[in-house]
Write a structure and sequence with these properties.
Layout lengths: L17 E2 L26 E2 L6 H12 L1
Antiparallel strand pairs: 1-2
Length: 66
């Protein structure tokens, strides 16, 4: 899973979770590989603690999808 902050929204993404990593530099994320949190190690591939900027970006991507 690569970080791709601006890719279109995927099914299942919400303001609280992202499919895959949306951090611009996941290698320095304090939650990288954290069980039950990080997309790189969760079975479903979701990140459950997206970046602080995610809610704004989610809204922008939602508007583009309409």
């Amino acid at each position: 899973m690569n970080s791709n902050r601006n890719r279109p929204l995927q099914e299942g993404e919400t303001e609280e979770r992202t499919l895959g990593c949306r951090y611009s530099r996941p290698e320095i994320c304090a939650r990288h590989s954290l069980p039950k949190v990080c997309a790189f190690v969760t079975r479903d591939g979701f990140c459950y603690v997206p970046p602080n900027s995610w809610s704004r970006l989610y809204k922008e991507l939602s508007e583009k999808a309409e």
